[in-house]
Write the structure tokens for this entry.
Amino acid sequence: MRIPLRWAGLSVIAILIAISIGLLVWEPIAAERGTPPESDRVYQAEIIRSEYGVPHIYGETDADVSYGVAIAHAQDDFDTLQDVLAMARGRYGAIAGQDGAAVDYAYHLLDARGTAQRQFTSLPEDTQALFNAYASGLNQFADENPGEVKLRNLFPVNGEDVAAGFALRQPFFFGLDKVIGPLVSGEERNPEPGPPLAALPVHMGEAGNFAGSNAFAIAPEKSGDGVTRLVSNSHQPLRGGVAWYEMTVQSEEGWHFTGANFPGSPYPFLGHNEHLGWTNTVNRPDMIDVYQLVMDDAGEKYRLDGEWLPLETRTVWLGVKFGPFTLPVPQTVYRSAHGPVIKNDEGYFAVRYGGIDNLDNLDAYYRLNKASDLDEFRSILARMDIPSTNFIYADEAGNIGYFYNAAIPDRMEGPDWRGVLPGDRGDLIWGGPVDFGEIPQLVNPESGWLFNANNTPFSAAGEGSDLDPADFSPVLGIEIRSTNRARRAAQLLSEPGPIDRARLEAIKYDTGYNREGYVAMMLDGVAALDLSDDPGLARAQALLGQWDLSADNVGDADALALLMIRPFMGADYNNGDIPDFREELERSANHLMEHFGRLDVPMSDLLRLRQGEVDLPLDGGSDTLRASTLWDIDDDGRLSLRHGDSFIQFVEWEAGERVRSQSIQPFGAATTRPDSPHYTDQMQLYVDHELKPVRFWREDVLENAASRQVVSNRQR
């Protein structure tokens, strides 16, 4: 029987239509529908927004406040919150395509869901309640705003879902992607400890790619006016899943804190309460070990201490968005007693990292929010539940402190832990972190000041006060490298005299470079080039040779130097290859000539802070204390800042006075709401090096309130 061609054509069309429909709907159908928190608890919170739209969330209980945090944040940036929740459920590829699928692969590889399932219910009940309340607020906002939901079956979520997001993201802040990326591609691992290279998308934590942050604490005897000061100067992406969101929280259960969190958290990660405060900077200890497994011929078992054990193997399906379709892509993930396993052409490699299978940091951050003095604060850090990041601390009693917080694996002496370890030795599978007393920490140094700028902990308080690296085991893998920011900070803080508020502000906003390290190497390398064959490039060489070592928008060479510095800074920070001097000079000069027609273009014309219709000039550079670290190159050739100075906060404790603080963010409280008056209302202050008041005390909030709202799930 012959089928007429027209019917055959219709059959093909029908099949294609069926396939298209299937690709459109398979991912949300295949995805396991979430479940809301089991509790039918009623929550109520009051959200008062300041004149800058910063939410101040009040509730009878901490859980009420957490519920309100979710509502307030969703009002300002529900788009990003959904991205974070999609990552926490292994469905980000259905939103962000191939980049999102890479995150989903990491989600399955690290067993983020399994970690949350094993660990969440073992957390203290009040911590679980906090996360479930937060999930309830997100669910309510999604129900009340269905038109904003961008992925079917993403909601409802529960506390375990939120916890899975923590399990996924926390190891990327100390460089796990720098290890996973080369293993997946079969490249050789760099044995030197370093920050993430963003082998996975920046949504995972551009705390990694050119990681940054500055932190300062000044004791009252050094401040000149008896005031204890703490400066938080985090360098994060200005948008996205690891961009700061500012808030103040207060409950009748004693929780009163102001600071900032990342999307997907029910509490701030840094800031201050009445009694004490802290800020964080990324540190770079050796937190990750790689083992090569000895496999049987079938590739199904690995040898450990003379026994053959089955390699855990799972096939997972990643939803990858291509245009209107979401395509199912299978991936196999492996796991051994060591941890996640990656297979490449060279074999099977297991990865083990500090904080693996531990989610007690969810509780630790909550307890830090409510700590009342140095002893309590230090006892929480001593649990070693927060995997990494330096803590710079100050309090109302005038104490200042630096804690090189890191859950560094408790390794035995002898093996080469920076190389690839034999996977068949069980004695190399460490069980937990070193004791808290083994990591660098410094309280109330004689100098009266402390800082960190992503540098070695052995430069923190100045000559005569710094820790001695000889006192710490090399097995800890503590970094000994510096940054330009650290050199500048140490130099400026070490100058004689009190460090008062004005001097501290000048240090924080410093735009200078020291002619040391990669800066000197770059300038000397360019100066040594023979450019007699290219007069145009020789002019660029001469201009760079006249640079005044500042990114302050004053010198004629500032724009050229800004373009030149970043690749050399990145290579130094990430232990990479030195860029070619001529190629980088040519690239930078060509960019300026193509888009501006001149080499000596004012840097303020090149570097911009852009959001919506607002377009402002910027100062600062890559690795200056006034940080303008990463940018996007727009069609007009200008550099639109996307990573650098983000949340900045100055905190002050004066004897006999209540704590006071000021802060600023690059854009505003409502970063993805163009119709909001708080979409861009902090930009001019940010550009002008100014701060806005933090309304920490309720009476101050009420006097300056832009809006008040009571939210509840009572009638739901």
